Amino acid sequence: MLRTPVITLTTDFGLKDPFVGIMKGVVLGINPEAGIIDITHNIERQNILEAARVIAASSKYFPAGTINVAVVDPGVGGSRKPLLVVTKDHYFIGPDNGLFSMVYERIEPDFLKVIHLTEPKYFLPSTGSTFHGRDIFAPVAAWLSKGTDPDNFGVKLDEYIKLSITKPVLSGDTLTGEIVTVDNFGNTISNITVDELANLVPLDSRERFKVSSGSRQMTVLNYYAENDGGSLSAIINSFGQLELFVFRGSAADKFNLKTGDKITVTLV
Amino acid sequence: MLRTPVITLTTDFGLKDPFVGIMKGVVLGINPEAGIIDITHNIERQNILEAARVIAASSKYFPAGTINVAVVDPGVGGSRKPLLVVTKDHYFIGPDNGLFSMVYERIEPDFLKVIHLTEPKYFLPSTGSTFHGRDIFAPVAAWLSKGTDPDNFGVKLDEYIKLSITKPVLSGDTLTGEIVTVDNFGNTISNITVDELANLVPLDSRERFKVSSGSRQMTVLNYYAENDGGSLSAIINSFGQLELFVFRGSAADKFNLKTGDKITVTLV
Amino acid sequence: MLRTPVITLTTDFGLKDPFVGIMKGVVLGINPEAGIIDITHNIERQNILEAARVIAASSKYFPAGTINVAVVDPGVGGSRKPLLVVTKDHYFIGPDNGLFSMVYERIEPDFLKVIHLTEPKYFLPSTGSTFHGRDIFAPVAAWLSKGTDPDNFGVKLDEYIKLSITKPVLSGDTLTGEIVTVDNFGNTISNITVDELANLVPLDSRERFKVSSGSRQMTVLNYYAENDGGSLSAIINSFGQLELFVFRGSAADKFNLKTGDKITVTLV
């Protein structure tokens, strides 16, 4: 017997306040069988773009039917709409502020529709203005996990907010991207992906890539320990992204790299 | 088929040591079906009052039958008693040091009885003196989640520790409270609640409240984004508490607010 | 009906990136019934020895059949082998870099065998070189939790990496050990255990132990609150380790103690 679909949570609530625990209590009060998985609650406060990247990176590793709740929601209680986004395999629930921009970007038939959550019978009875994670998003996720039809929660929306996601630019044989994430290890991850690199040259010829960050130049290695000399190196990480790293160290700290810094790849 | 009751955990153990994981292992060794939810493990070390507020804020959002374990326990291993608190809908397990003060405050019939945990057959076999979360509270929670009668765990207690919880003071048309919590967003939350405000004037006339913090005066807004100018604002948050905030910023940092600072509400 | 075995996770991934959540998604995609418990994700980056201690301290509190996944893995993608370690009661999955050194140390028949994970049909289809937690360790744990025979995952290994674990030294009536862990409370935990102390004198005569840290001398107390005067004290903690503490304070901060500092116990 399978458990009902997994519900994931991505927020900027941090792990000190009881907000995340309370959302889980609300879910379990509606569906005691729900399985709830934390993606992260340490999104930088109000950083919608960071959350959008985390949602896009994580959702594909969850089983079909997974319900992804994301709450980074400075506009809570105002005019911004609460949403349920339906794709071929997954659901996404959260505010209409661009959190799901990278979900919308996927080519059909992955992305199917966006529903404006308007049906209060699926909300907590007394809905306040500062915590829709508890009052709207958690209960809607719980009802959805119990099998409620998505269309019951509200009305289909044709317009919703899409943030502009910076893409690498190809000019001649040079691809210019930027650092978009610094991970827990100080690895600096760019928006250059295997898809763009494969447009330059087949990836089995990756020794032909010359990667540059400021005045530093690197080749693309196959695994971290391949360069244990402490200099900056490049790798295509397991998410298919070009990443700069230092073996057993923090590239960000050691080479003063940060999000927004340019990275170029040239064919040699 | 419902899972057995949820067990929640609230501690000051932090998230680096394996203490929380070990408590969960002990629970699952006794009841493999238990569902365990973290409320927070980042209570300030030994801050019993902070934990008492977190427990009171979170427990009501969990289903009937939920077992709330709280371990902020500087007196572990000494003479302080281990407790099981029974209310109409919930259970609370932890040391007798005031952690459940706000549970005791609730009006009957919510609060029913306090049991001193004296029956060692529900403890781990070798109980040490520094980690009763593992040796007493986790196993008692697990046995309770399996249906053991509360009275089997020990004897009813008539005296137990209640911390004094500061209440707002009404003088004429002015209610004086204080900041009791600063949340992850830097919002500063007071001990003034909708109940006290409703004694001043019906809440649908909230435009008549003048809120003061030091020399700053504010009206009560309806949602955060209503004041996007960067000045300090007040709101009644979704827990029914008067809260001071700055839209997309930290009120605590920007206006140097901290717990204990006075907040007044005057009728105008 | 029991759930399938518990899977525990111990990593240095931190709680900001989605890495831990992604591993859980992979597990649930293979075994939707799996129960997953976090031990910690705040192991110091690349500190294999710290993780080895955490694994040894926590695994014994989990039920028989528990699958412990540990990922502190600077050598990921290179020549280091992925392992499944089988003991009488538990499984351990992670890289061959010494993470399981304290598991190997246990006397037979606890430790049974080490299997080199070589069978790609239990891995994610496209295995990258930077995240074997997702691509190898999580799926192997999930398949194991579903009942796959350990021998199906690969071939038995006779050589694997064991880190040297510092032991206390007995010289005459003096046992010299060192601080190996500083916990969330600033308690400083040594590698001197009840077993070594019992070799000096039966533990019911613990008043005969004189504990020294630098120029400070202490007796061994029975519980933390026994010394509320703010001076450094010793206790045998609930893991059977000799620990130095300050009641309601941080011994590490107040007395400038750190891992590697010597602790001696002399019989008086």
Quaternary assembly: homotrimer
Terminus-to-terminus distance of chain A: 56 Å
SSE topology string of chain A? EHEHEEEHEHEEEEHEEEEEHE
Report the strand count of chain A.
16
Which fold name fills CATH's third level, the topology of the largest domain in chain A? Rossmann fold
Kindly report the greatest chain-chain contact and the residue count on each side.
A-B, 32 and 39 residues
Biggest beta sheet attributes of chain A: 9 strands, mixed
Secondary structure class of chain A reads alpha+beta
CATH superfamily of the largest domain in chain A: S-adenosyl-l-methionine hydroxide adenosyltransferase, N-terminal
Mean pLDDT, all residues of chain A: 94
CATH top-level class of the largest domain in chain A: Alpha Beta
CATH architecture of the largest domain in chain A, by name, is 3-Layer(aba) Sandwich
Alpha plus pi helix count of chain A: 6
- Runs of chain A in which pLDDT lies below 50 for 5 or more consecutive residues are none
Instruction: Provide the number of structural domains of chain A.
Output: 2
Helix content of chain A: 10-25%
Question: Over all CA atoms, what is the radius of gyration of chain A?
Answer: 21 Å
